[in-house]
């Protein structure tokens, strides 16, 4: 006898209608981990859908002492990379039967701690932080409290971390400019309290050192990661007051690169012809700018999957897992004037 439309369809009902045991039906409908593709599992899921069965994952999670929820902490969602990172984390979490919720904190440590406590108050099973500073106390506190957590994009070098290999990325960016014939290369990077800024600068310096190129102190500018920071740095580098300006700039994220583009326009310089430019992260807008931007692509989907695994299966991954970036050449980087 089929359950009435008004009745709550139970797992027992699904098992009976499918002609399998309750334990077999439960396994077929379990959304945790890899979903079974066996003929029996597919049949059970089809019957469950026809009956209108809804698995009470909250109740079953409470019985196991977990909520199947992960908290994600980012500095801000107005940053395209952070928004894309959360989307990938949300997708990777869902693939493993988890729900991801996000909170923003800015770059202030006190705000970061308050946001983390807010997520923990909601009984999340773990935290994923895209906010880590090199001087950050929060990862240490989470380690001491044995809170399951992982850092993404940035690392403190101790807590479980999933990120791109930023030193390799910085190296690829500047090596590309050197291979085009540039020797007057400047670097605009992010805040010194972030592992990303430091590692990308280290990679740039390594490429220059191999080529026998010196990076003048006033051609290495650190600041925030916003477009306005890139504009200010680009304006200073391209002013020409000292009688010499760089022929190429590596900007350590695409926002900075777009700011440099605006500064170049102000100084009457053409990107790709008068000034070569390489960004980082390869956000979707990069390829659609008036002069498409050469950028280093960060594998966000791979980083997200690794971060989720670091929490739900911590013995599967290395404590600090680095994914390999890729250089995507476009029209913004060309040979110095007079070469070709």
UniProtKB/TrEMBL annotation:
Q: Which domain of life is it from?
A: Bacteria
Q: Does the keyword Cell inner membrane apply?
A: no
The entry's protein name is Putative LacI family transcriptional regulator
| Gene Ontology molecular function, alphabetical | DNA-binding transcription factor activity; transcription cis-regulatory region binding
> Which CDD domains does the annotation name?
HTH_LacI, PBP1_LacI-like
List membrane-spanning regions: none
Q: Is DNA-binding set as a keyword in this record? A: yes
Q: Per the record, which residues fall in region Disordered?
A: 317-340
Q: Which species is the source of this protein?
A: Arthrobacter globiformis (strain ATCC 8010 / DSM 20124 / JCM 1332 / NBRC 12137 / NCIMB 8907 / NRRL B-2979 / 168)
């Amino acid at each position: 006898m089929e359950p009435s439309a008004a009745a709550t369809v139970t797992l027992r009902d699904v098992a009976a209608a499918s002609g399998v045991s309750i334990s077999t039906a439960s396994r077929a409908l379990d959304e945790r981990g890899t979903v079974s593709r066996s003929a029996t599992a597919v049949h059970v899921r089809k019957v469950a859908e026809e009956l209108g069965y809804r698995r009470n994952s909250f109740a079953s999670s409470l019985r196991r002492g977990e909520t199947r929820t992960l908290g994600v902490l980012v500095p801000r969602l107005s940053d395209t990379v952070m928004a894309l990172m959360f989307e990938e984390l949300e997708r990777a979490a869902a693939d493993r039967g988890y729900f991801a919720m996000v909170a923003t904190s800015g770059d202030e440590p006190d705000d970061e701690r308050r946001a983390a406590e807010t997520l923990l108050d909601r009984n999340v099973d773990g935290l994923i932080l895209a906010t880590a500073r090199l001087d950050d106390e929060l990862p240490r506190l989470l380690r001491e409290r044995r809170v399951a957590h992982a850092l993404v994009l940035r690392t403190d070098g101790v807590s479980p971390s999933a990120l791109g290999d930023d030193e390799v990325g910085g190296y690829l960016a500047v090596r590309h400019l050197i291979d085009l014939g540039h020797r007057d290369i400047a670097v605009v990077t992010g805040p010194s309290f972030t592992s990303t800024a430091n590692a990308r600068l280290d990679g740039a310096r390594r490429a220059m050192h191999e080529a026998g190129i010196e990076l003048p102190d006033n051609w290495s500018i650190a600041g925030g990661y916003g477009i306005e920071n890139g504009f200010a740095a680009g304006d200073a580098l391209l002013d020409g007051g000292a009688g010499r300006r760089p022929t190429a700039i590596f900007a350590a994220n695409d926002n900075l690169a777009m700011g440099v583009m605006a500064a170049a326009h102000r100084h009457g310089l053409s990107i790709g012809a008068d000034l070569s430019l390489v960004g980082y992260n390869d956000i979707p807008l990069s390829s659609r700018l008036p002069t498409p931007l050469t950028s280093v692509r960060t594998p966000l989907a791979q980083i997200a999957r690794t971060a989720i695994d670091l929490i739900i299966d911590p013995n599967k991954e290395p404590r600090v897992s680095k994914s390999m970036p890729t250089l995507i050449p476009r029209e913004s980087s060309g040979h110095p004037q007079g070469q070709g």
